[in-house]
Amino acid sequence: MVVAKAGEVQFEPEYDRASEIKAFDETKAGVKGLVDAGVSEVPRMFHQPPDTFGETYVPSASQFSIPVIDLQGVQEDCGTRTSIVEEVRTASKEWGFFQIINHGIPVSVLEEMKVRVRRFFEQDDELKKQFYTRDNLKKVVHNTNFDLLTAPAANWRDSVYCKMAPDPPRPEELPEPFRDMMFEYNDRVMSLGHLLFELISEALGLNPDHLLKIDCAKGLAQLCHYYPACPQPELTIGTSKHADSTFLTVLLQDHIGGLQVLHENQWIDVPPVPGALVVNIGDLLQLITNDSLVSVEHRVLANLVGPRVSVASIFVTGFHPDPRSYGPIKELLSVDNPPKYRETTVQEFMTHFQNKGLDGNSTLLHFRI
Questions:
Q1: Which of 59, 78, 170, 253 has a CA positioned 20 to 30 A from the CA of residue 138?
Q2: 3-state DSSP call for residue 177?
Q3: What gap in Å lies between CA 242 and CA 295, rounded to an integer?
């Protein structure tokens, strides 16, 4: 870029994005480190392309609202269960997202989990740095953006990823701030996940244990995000538009908000509901149901108030070696509904997702027949 100044021509130094990213990553202090240092302007590496916010944003007061499903009585009453299964079917086919209340996990546990996650990110930098890595095979992975080195723009968030099943870490391998809480929360979410997979199986017209028998709940990881307050939220984003690469995601979000779902090409808020959990269908579940259920794109906006804390419980075995192949479920196929995807392993699917990053394109495209 040429800049005219005082009658002479000057050249603005070329922006070296790679060097900026490398220097930032080597601090191992994350976005929180920038905020703690008093940054008043969002560094260029976080600036989103101008078209990032292109889809229409519709306030939550619009005609659309995320379904909220009450699970009260789902185990005790057949009539109640039937109606809940119908609600799950409709929400999973039309939205790919729904919130659940009366899900069996005490509010006190949800609140304590958020407190502990926040405590991890707000502890002394030197204690966090021992977990900072880009090695996805580790049990605990703390970093800023898994695709930081390849994404066109960085997201304004820090994360810690804990692989909890099928091969759980030893207690001493987990960070001290949430060590005991992580095991309790994981056990409760695993139980809830079994119920959700049963309901989804029934919604598909399958036996209640169908998705469990093919190991959809075999793997579970806890992905904890921390979105610090952002001085210029209009320039960046908390999490770029993407669809989850999981079978199922169960999300615990705090009161701040910012999560949005792309529905009918409009961004719809997923408002925080006290005591509720957000459930969304992942790409792998869309694949094995041959598009009967939808994995939809969503994002998280950066915010001025922060920090926002969330915990995404992701049902997927990730990079855990597993020979099982997944393709469209044969019971759901017919002459009029032939398979739309080739078979794949979870490891292959996740590797493709990891390599492409949050680029705005669906991972499913790579596996379509």
A1: 253
A2: helix
A3: 10
Secondary structure letter of residue 368 according to DSSP: B
**Closest to 161 (Cα-Cα) out of 173, 172, 151, 149:** 173
Q: What is the pLDDT of residue 322?
A: 85
Residue 278's DSSP bridge partners are 99, 251
Tens digit of each residue's pLDDT (9 = 90 or more) over 81-119: 999 999 999 999 999 999 999 999 999 999 999 999 999
Model pTM score: 0.93
Q: What single-letter amino acid sits at 364? A: L
Domain count, the chain: 1
- Are 185 and 116 in contact, with CB atoms under 8 Å apart? no
**Residues 175-225: pLDDT tens digits?**
999 999 999 999 999 999 999 999 999 999 999 999 999 999 999 999 999
**288: how many CB neighbours lie within 10 A of its CB?**
21
Structure tokens at 33: 């480190």
Cα separation, 140 vs 358, whole angstroms: 21
What one-character DSSP code corresponds to residue 340? -
Which residues pair with residue 97 across a beta bridge?
Answer: 280
Which domain covers residue 13, as residue numbers?
2-367
Q: Tell whether the model's pLDDT for residue 61 goes beyond 50.
A: no
User: What does the angle CA 251 – CA 273 – CA 245 come to, to the nearest 5 degrees?
Assistant: 20
DSSP-based three-state secondary structure for 109: helix
| Structural tokens at position 103 | 């899900």
The closest of 121, 139, 224, 138 to 177, measured between CA atoms, is 121
325 strand-pairing partners? 345
First to last CA, the chain: 45
pLDDT reported for residue 60: 46
Contact present, 19 and 44 (Cβ < 8 Å)? no
8 A C-beta contact, residue 168 and residue 219: no
Calpha distance 172→153 (Å, rounded): 35
CB-side neighbour CA atoms (13 Å) of 84:
25
Tokens coding 327: 């393709």
Smallest CA-to-CA distance from 240 within 277, 267, 278 is with 267
Say how many residues make up the chain.
Answer: 369
CATH code of 102's domain? 2.60.120.330
Question: Tokens in use for 75?
Answer: 């185990």
